[in-house]
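Forum: Protein Structure Q&A
Topic: Joint prediction for protein chains with partners

I've read a bunch of threads here and the consensus seems to be that you should model interacting components together rather than docking separate models afterwards. I'd like to see that in practice. Below is the full input, 852 residues plus whatever partners are listed. Could one of the regulars post the assembled result?
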Amino acid sequence: MTENNNNTLPLEYSTEQGQMSIVGFWIFVAAEVALFATLFATYAVLFGRTADSPEAMELFQPGIALTMTFILLTSSFTCGLAIHSMREGSLKGLMIFLFITLALGLTFLGFEIYEFVHYASEGATLQSSAYWSGFFILTGTHGVHVTLGIGWMIAILIQLKQRGLTAVTNRKVFILGLYWHFLDVVWIFIFTGVYLIGMVV
Amino acid sequence: MQLDEFFVTGEPLIYAGMVAIAVVSAAIVFLLTYFKKWKWLWQEWLTTVDHKKIGVMYILVALAMIFRAGVDALMMRLQLAFPDMNFLNSQHYNEVFTTHGTIMIFFVAMPFLIGLMNVVVPLQIGARDFAFPYVNALSFWSLFFGAMLFNISFVIGGAPDTGWTNYAPQAGAVLNPGPGINFYLLGLQLSGIGTLATGINLMVTILRMRAPGITLFKMPIFSWSTLITSFIIVFAFPILTVALALMTVDRIFGSHFFTLAGEGLPMMWANLFWLWGHPEVYIVILPAFGIFSEIIATFARKQLFGYKTMVWAIILIAGLSFVVWVHHFFTMGAGAFVNSIFSITTMAIAVPTGVKIFNWLATLYKSKIIFPVPMLWSLAFIPSFTIGGVTGVMLGMAAADYQYHNTYFLVSHFHYVLIPGTVFASFAGLVFWYPKLFGHKLNEKIGKWAFWLFLIGFHVCFFPQYFLGLDGMARRVFTVGPEWFTLNFISTVGAFTMGLGFMVFVFGVIYSFRYSTRDLPGDDWQYGRTLEWATPTPVPKYNFATLPENVRTHDTLIDMKEDGETTFDEKKLESIHMPSYTGQPFIMMAILFFASFALVFEWITLAVIGLIATIVMMFIRSFDYDEGYHIEVDELRENERRARGLDDDRE
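Posted by a regular:
Agreed with the consensus. Here's the joint model:
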């Protein structure tokens, strides 16, 4: 509520409200961890319960999953570079790296949509069996998060264009960064817990 | 879809409900128009971000919902009063116990306690509002519209009928088609958004906005219990979100999480539900413990005994609350080993709870107790809740639970913890902090009548149910045999006595509004110990003109009185930043209400349109750079002097 400025801190931490928003977002991420943990648990419990539909092993393609992993990891790296440019005070650098992150996010989504359509054509859909319900909801929830992140990024890019680097816009970029890295962490668990295990068990 | 499929038809009681809704709505519209209050309603309430006003609205919703779910309860008790009654048929009875339970937990216990937290916590820790006032308004409107969505189910579409636990596969699309269960799933989903947001909001508020000197261990115990409750909310509510979403997808989009077909696992619902559900029990009881602690210390006129052990007991209970969920379905057949573990964790909870009981008793020991209404509720809580707790340990023993499971013994047990715990605390807290909310006290005499009627009614209603349970009367049966007549009849008499007690309570609110004196000191009960009593009554919108500087204990006001400090030190006045009121939270949640309503009836296109409109609202919020406004020193000085009755000839 107060606007005490503290010049030794990065711009996003410079106001009380900025600090509180960042703390609040960390707590939100904790809630998101609980949400994804529940989805992973559900997936694990339903593992192998494929009824009459294809097994995971028959459909998973290591190439696509690995490509998606590299794309998302790279986007997390460029997102980190965006925050770095922001801290350096370079609006241009920040916007360029955010654009790259955005493009990589969209590419990731493209692959995911292709993957889902491909599985559906092979007879594995949300309605096929408990296992595939668990799979589509877990990966789909992550995909929806990525989609929302992309929309959010577009909104913030417009605001950066309008307002430049301020305590408020920097805070928004920083929080978006936290969100994006969090999605990356979730994906690493999906890659190992769903795809790698699904291909061998 | 035909109109008679949309509205529920054929039940005289429900027609009466429709008429009542129509009459009340028309009366509200008429009164607002007649007294030209529409603008007032919008500017003062619907757009407010002030934590005190939002708290008041939470409590109003809770009181309205007590009425609704209380009528459900009385209908059930009437049906069970005599053997083979024909007042409700089996389907209607199923719907009534479902809405009773769901509303009491989600739309009474939660909003009542969150409402009190809204009002009191910022005042206790010396904050001027929540960390995120906008989000706080959003939370309230999500609760409000969630409650409305759930409540209209009994006249539009049909009420859910599978109990508040909504077990699969009974609640699945195959056995239970139609909108009923969808109302449950989406109503709770909508209000759950707000609960999670409030949890985060309160946590940041408490962690970051305490006045200087109020360290965590100098924080009043109610604020402590709120902080721990917020932790539980943040880690438990996402589980409910997922469980509700999975069942919604099951029902509307044909997935197989909880179905019998496609290798789904119906018992996974029970696990997910109680993984959230047991922590939820502590979400509604820990704040109650906090309220009782404040009131007992205040009216025993003595420092709370064992403050630190109280805090650690809360933390321990919160931790244990996540590892006991299987005790809700010992009879599922998880095996002796699993049941034993959960039996032990369950009984372990009695230890920190017992610590708290003894701390309250030790606070009372050798103190000069006075007995205003909040203290009566608190003193009645201790023995009543202990009966509920001890029978809880009986239920917690897995082997014995095979006898008690799903009988009236269980029904009586959880009413014995939830009513003396949560409901008594809500009433006690409301009466206690009422002057801070409305600037006048509730009438003591009427309050005592309400208390005694409710307390006696409660024991008459629920004590016989333990014995009905031991006699083998199963939960959720809709008729009773002659062998259970006497005890059931006594129980029904008790239930109506409680209803009468509640009506007297409401009468007391109206009576006091007209006749109570308004000119109260800030420390309205004279024995206040914590910072909220340092503010003038009614509390100004900025809460504190200045903050205390020399806090030494958790009884902040006692320290301040010793030092002659107040929250109005003219030398230290600075302008105060305030957030602007906004209608966005109301509009956003109204849109989400329509989207959810469409999804209940599986009108996918409309639901998608509503969802897109919600995202548009989020964009509008993102581009909103409203900075709020400042209250200047002159205005502060004038306002505080008037509120504190200080003379104005200072020059």
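Chain A has a mean pLDDT of 94.
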